[in-house]
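Aim 2 progress update. The chain analyzed this quarter is reproduced below.
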Amino acid sequence: MALTRSYKHTIAERAQRDPEFAQALLDEAATLFLNGEPEMARIILRDLVNATVGFEALAKETAKPSKSLHRMLSAKGNPSMDNLAAIFAVIRATLGVDMQVHAVRAH
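Predicted structure tokens:
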């Protein structure tokens, strides 16, 4: 019988030990939002929050209830742009990264 584990646990462990992986998740979440795939972006952000700052610390940093943040970052969540910007800012600060958007012309 093969042992299995939750992909969320695997993602969290890797993001905690590999800063480049955590940064790639943040980049992917931002790219998905900008490309019109907000549901997947919210799921990646939720996993990243769990692996890095945690929802309780995020709640303190954003002055939003933890429960509200969990709802915002659920598959069916609907965070406002202000809340989303605040979440990104906390994660960026936690990871010590800056983000820049570059437009690429579609072919």
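The helical segments are 7-17, 19-34, 38-51, 55-62, 66-72, 81-95. The longest helix spans residues 19-34. These observations will guide the mutagenesis experiments scheduled for the next reporting period.
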